[in-house]
Write a structure and sequence with these properties.
The structure holds 2 protein chains of 2 kinds. Helix content of chain A is 55%, strand content 1%. By secondary structure, chain A is an all-alpha fold. Chain B contains 8 helices and 3 strands, in the order H-H-H-E-E-H-H-H-H-H-E. A 3-stranded mixed β-sheet of chain B has the order 1-2-3, with no helix packed on it. In chain B, a hairpin with a 2-residue loop joins strand 1 (52-53) and strand 2 (56-58). The longest helix of chain B is centred in the middle third of the chain and has 28 residues, at 94-121. The chains are: A mainly alpha, B mainly alpha. The interface between A and B is large, with 57 and 55 residues.
Amino acid sequence: MNLQNIISQIEKTDPEVYDRLNTRRKVMKDFANMSGKIALSALPLAIGSMFKKAYGKNTDAITDVLNFALTLEYIESEFYKKGVGTANLIPAGPQLTALTVIRDHEVSHVAFLTAAIMSLSAEPVAFAAEDFDFTAQGTFPTVFSNYDVFLAVAQTFEDTGVRAYKGQAANLISNNDILTAALRIHSVEARHAAHVREMRMARQAADTSNPLYVGTIKPWITLKQSNIGSAAVQASYDGEEITTQATVNIVNIGGQTISANAASESFDEPLTQAQVTTIVTPFFA
Amino acid sequence: MPTIKNSKEQGAVINEGITQNVSRRKFLGYVGATSAILATAASCKKNDNNNNNDDGVNLGSGDVGVLNYAYALEQLEAAFYVMVTSSFYAGATDQEKSYLTDIRDHEVAHREFFKAAITAAAPTQIIPALEVNFSSINFSDKASVLGTAKAFEDLGVSAYNGAGKLITNPDYLVLAGKIVSVEARHAALIRDLLAAGSFADLTVDATADSANGLDAVRTPSEVLSIASAYLKTKINASNLPTS
C-alpha cells in the first residue's frame, strides 16, 4: 500500500493532516521498517498508531490533568446544583445565597475547563447528575435531607478540591496559561472552603450538641482536623498536620512564637491524583 | 555598582550625600570625584547588601527573584498584622481578635519560611528587612484595618496567581501553592467580616474573571505598584522573569 497516497487522500478533507502527523523522521522510518515484517491484516492498526495522536484523544499530560480537574468540578457542580435545587434543604437568605454563588462558580469552572481542553484538541470528560451518588454508597444517606450533612460534604469537597489542584500544579508547569488558570480556580475553591467552614462554625454555635460539629472550626485547617464528626472524611485531611516545609521547621520559626496549630494552618497540603481518586470514587453512581 | 547617568541624578545624589551623616571634609572630598564614586558613597546605607542600588532593593532574577518577591509581600503582611494585633481596633470582638491573631501567625510563619528558604538557597541574594509605611492606616478603626487587610490578602492572592508561571522549579511552585490557598482563606474571611457573603465576589477586582469563576491575577509590577503605597523601601523588580 502506498502510505503517501493515503495521506494525500486525507489531505483533501483535512489540509492540516501534515501538521497533525508525527512526521519526525524516526517515526516514518520505523513505519517503513515495520511494513516489510507485518501482515497485511495488521496494517490498519499500524497506520492507526501513527494517526492516533493526530485524531484520537490527545492524551498528553496537560489535558490529563485538566480532565482530572474537570471531573472534580463536575462532582462539585452537580452536588451544588442538586443541593440548591432541593426544596427545604438550605435555609433561605445568606446561606442559600452563598451556596448559590459557589454553585455558579463550579458550573463556570466546568464550562471553562471543558473549553480549555477542547482548545487543546483533546476530548473533555462529561458527566451528568445521574452519574453521581452523593450519599457515597450510603455513607451520607441524608446528604440532601439533612443540611448539616450537606454542609459537611460541601466542606470536604472544597478542602479536597483545593488539595487536588495543588497536587497538580507542578504537572502544568510547561503551560503558562493553563497553570495560571488552574491557580486562579484553586484560590477560588479555597475561598469557598473558608466560607463553608464559617457557615459550619455558625451552625455549631447554634447547636453545640450536634455531633457533626467537632472541635474549633476555622476558615483554615488546623492539624489534620476535619471538624466533621465522621471518620469517612478523614482521608481529605490526613497530611495537613505537617509542620515542616522544605526541611524548615515552622513551629517557633525564627524565634517567633508559632504553635503547631498555626504552623499547620499556614500551609495547605497537596493530595496526589491517586489519593483524590480514592476519596471521590465512592461518589460515583 | 550603579553609575549616574545624568546631571539630574547627580544632583539628587549630592542631596542624599548631604542628608547622610557624611562628614563635610569627606563629602567635599567626594564632590570633585567621579560620578561612580559619588554614587557609591551616597547609596551606601546601613545594612546595605548587594541588592541595593539607587533604584531600591533589587529582588533579583529567576526563581530566587520570585521567592524574594513573595518574601517582600509576606514581610508587608506580617508587619501589618503584628501592628493590628498589638493593639486591636475599637470594638474588636473576641472572634475577630482570634481570627486576626491566627492570620498574624500565618503571615509571620510565611515570612520566616521564605527568609529561611532563601537564606539556604541563595544567601547573598536575599533581600533585607523592608521598611513599611502604614501612615495611611488608622489602626484603631475597624473599617480602616479590615479594609487594608482585605486589600493585602486579595493582593497577595493575585500576586501568587500571577507569579506561578514565573517559577521554574516545581518544588518552589508547590510551596507557593501551599501558601496562596491560605491567603485565599484569609481573604474570604476578611471579606465576610466586612460584608457577609462577599468571600468570593469576583466582580470587585478588575483582574478577576467572574464569568469563568477565576480569581484575580497580577504581574509583579502591578502588585508592587499597589504595595508601594505601604512601603518606604523602594523595590526594584526589573530583573524578575516575565514569563
